[in-house]
Design a protein that fits this description.
By secondary structure, the protein is an alpha+beta fold. It contains twelve helices and 36 strands. α7 runs antiparallel to α9, α8 crosses α9 and α10 crosses α11.
Length: 655
């Protein structure tokens, strides 16, 4: 599916100062808007945190009476280091609804005169689709060096499919001043909202509105953190003409109108013709299958047999292909796979709706005004209230007062079990495209959907060593990640497990290893057994005992916090459980004391029971939040410390 809305990036760099030329000499060679940029600070003499900066970034969109858009993009960049790649090339992204009408650039080296660039622009494909109408026009400026200022200007005219605009205030560099302007014909309606962060109200002069931000900091890439672009301010704008005025682009007065627009595009695409039904019958289980089995079979058939290939040319970026075509070719994008799934469900007597959502975790869908911020499509299956479903379907169900009980299926994610949703979709605002009944819903997501369950059996052997067996069950996103590893290389997956074991038991010898990538319950099941030299516990005296909860303290990744700039984000809540059976626990040993540790958004418990010489231990860590802001790092440190202390117990076993 095409990217959400329209946001117009600039260069991947930034810009600044000219230092020694007189204002008159500069103005003689630069356009007025560039010559007006002054007051740039001197270029630092030493190393800098960023190789470039943006002095000025501007997008101006003028809406014509027929709904056509005229866009002007201007930005001024400065090289702060000898690495000038992000300054010497400017670019403008567009699609096949747009035509670029002007491309200009000027170069002002430090202590020299400004010159207009004579380079020839180059168009390249943009995005990760197999075929796409999305392109970027690049313009290279020669001779850029440290201290250089480069000014870029692009102009384009576009005939959009709808009048929903988005502007991301992000340049992958620090920005002194960023501005978005919108001019509309008299009497037109404009509704706007800020997403992710609050922003200023528009300044209105006549029929022009402008929004401006200053001193945007440089992006910081850190481990366990979202992309800086996903944290950047996003402005959404809804535009519509006065009542009675008809224009070519669609306009959205409310969310049902967005639903109607997509429903009309998709009309008839999921139709089950006799030929399609016959083909689907061959691909699906016999008609006597139970409803849960039929649901599962339909979802897995589309997920596993139809390869994801995105062909997004023109309206095909929004309109799905007919289900019969997708089944015949066995490839398609999220819209195509979702539409085919709707057809397969119809054959099994289930009704369903397409659901539009933004995949990636960044907020793009407000309650108001209605904006096109979608880049993904899944399917909502209507489930009768009296119909019982196995527990594996529980994580992907939601009940709506108007639409009833819905089961959400993402047939595009080939590593996600039917009955779960990818973690990036959980909690997202989505639009059920049900014609006039279309409405926003919140996609389901529970703290316990993503689990690691480890079951250990530890036995002393007659030769004085230990035999250990670990069975690991993963669900939700953790299972999807493991399946992805396994599908890329089962050998590398096994090697990573063996390396993990070697970190705890350097002399361990793996005897057996097996994987079931997807069980009947939708789990990823991995089993490993190995021998360990009991008398050679790593780093300790021979009789110091064995770890009761091996590796539990390392189940949550950690990062240094001392100089960290941004929040720590785990991506999704999770539950980690270890259950250990240790044989050979001496009868005279005291039973370890149970623990219960908790904080804001996390809890850790341990418990112990014994049956003669068998010790049964349980360790559970539950993280119900996914994000710790910088001010909350003391709480995060407390969580990490509790992980380590609760999992540090060792016990002595009889030989």
């Amino acid at each position: 599916m095409m990217p959400p809305g329209r946001w117009l990036p600039a260069a991947l760099g930034a810009s600044l100062a000219w230092a020694a030329l007189s204002p008159g000499a500069v103005a003689a060679s630069l356009p007025d808007w560039a010559a007006a940029i002054d007051g740039a600070p001197e270029v630092p003499s030493g190393p800098t945190d960023t190789p470039s900066r943006v002095l000025y970034s501007e997008v101006r969109v003028t809406v014509q009476p027929d709904g056509t858009l005229r866009t002007r993009r201007r930005f001024a960049l400065q090289a702060l280091s000898v690495n000038t790649d992000k300054v010497s090339t400017g670019w403008y992204q567009f699609d096949d609804t747009a035509k670029i009408t002007a491309v200009r650039a000027w170069h002002l080296p430090l202590h020299e005169r400004a010159k207009k660039s004579r380079s020839t622009p180059v168009d390249v494909a943009a995005g990760d689709a197999f075929l796409s109408g999305s392109k970027a026009r690049f313009l290279e400026v020669e001779g850029v060096k440290k201290g250089s200022l480069v000014f870029y200007e692009f102009e384009a005219i576009e005939k959009p499919y709808f009048l929903s605009l988005s502007h991301l205030f992000y340049e992958n560099a620090p920005v002194d001043r960023a501005r978005f302007e919108l001019e509309t014909p008299p009497g037109w309606s404009v509704r706007s909202t800020w997403l992710r962060h609050p922003g200023p109200d528009p300044q209105i002069v006549g029929s022009t509105r402008s929004w401006e931000l200053r001193d945007l900091p440089p992006p910081v890439e850190e481990r366990l953190a979202p992309s800086p672009a996903d944290e950047a301010p996003l402005l959404g704008i809804n535009v519509s003409p006065p009542p009675g005025i008809r224009i070519a682009p669609a306009t959205f007065s409310d969310w049902p109108s967005v639903s109607r627009w997509y429903s009309e595009l998709a009309l008839g695409r999921a139709e089950v013709t006799p030929a399609l039904e016959q083909a689907l019958r061959l691909a699906l289980p016999p008609s006597g299958a139970s409803p849960p089995d039929a649901l599962l079979a339909a979802g897995m058939m589309v997920r596993d047999r139809v390869r994801y290939v995105a062909v997004e040319l023109g309206l095909a970026g929004y309109q799905p292909r007919p289900a019969a075509e997708t089944l015949a070719k066995l490839y398609g994008d999220c819209k195509d796979k979702g539409t085919l799934l709707q057809s397969a469900l119809a054959v099994e007597k289930f009704s369903s709706y397409p659901v539009l959502v933004h995949s990636g975790g960044a907020e793009t869908i407000p309650q108001d005004p209605p904006l096109w911020g979608f880049n993904h499509l899944i399917v909502a299956v209507t489930i009768p209230t009296a119909q019982s479903l196995p527990d594996r379907f529980a994580p992907a169900q939601v009940t709506d007062a108007d639409l009833g009980r819905l089961l959400l299926i993402d047939p595009t994610s080939d590593t996600t079990s039917i009955g779960w949703l990818p973690a990036g979709l959980a909690g997202q605002t989505a639009l059920v495209a049900a014609g006039d009944r279309g409405k926003l819903i919140t996609l389901p997501g529970r703290d316990s959907d993503h689990q690691i369950q480890e079951h250990w059996i530890v036995k002393p052997t007659q030769d004085g060593n230990l035999h250990l067996m670990r069975e690991t069950r993963l669900t939700g996103e953790l299972a999807a990640e493991a399946r992805s590893d396994e599908s890329r290389s089962s050998r590398d997956r096994r090697r990573s497990v063996e390396e993990e074991i070697a970190r705890w038991w350097p002399d361990a010898v793996v005897e057996e290893y097996s994987v079931r990538a997807e069980t009947a319950e939708g789990e990823f099941l991995e089993t490993v057994s190995f021998h360990h030299g009991f008398s050679r516990a790593p780093g300790d005296a021979p009789d110091s005992g064995v770890e009761v909860f091996p590796g539990a303290g390392d189940m949550f990744e950690r990062v240094p916090l001392g100089r960290r700039k941004g929040a720590v984000e785990y991506g999704f809540p999770r539950l980690v459980l270890q259950e250990i059976v240790l044989e050979g626990f001496p009868e005279g040993e005291f039973l370890p004391a149970a623990q219960s540790l908790q904080g804001n958004g996390w809890a850790i418990t341990t418990s112990y029971t014994r049956e003669q010489t068998t010790l049964r231990a349980r360790w559970e860590a539950r993280l119900s939040r996914r994000r710790f802001e910088v001010a909350e790092f003391p709480e995060l440190r407390k969580f990490w410390s509790s992980l380590s202390s609760s999992a540090s117990l060792r016990v002595r076993l009889s030989r």
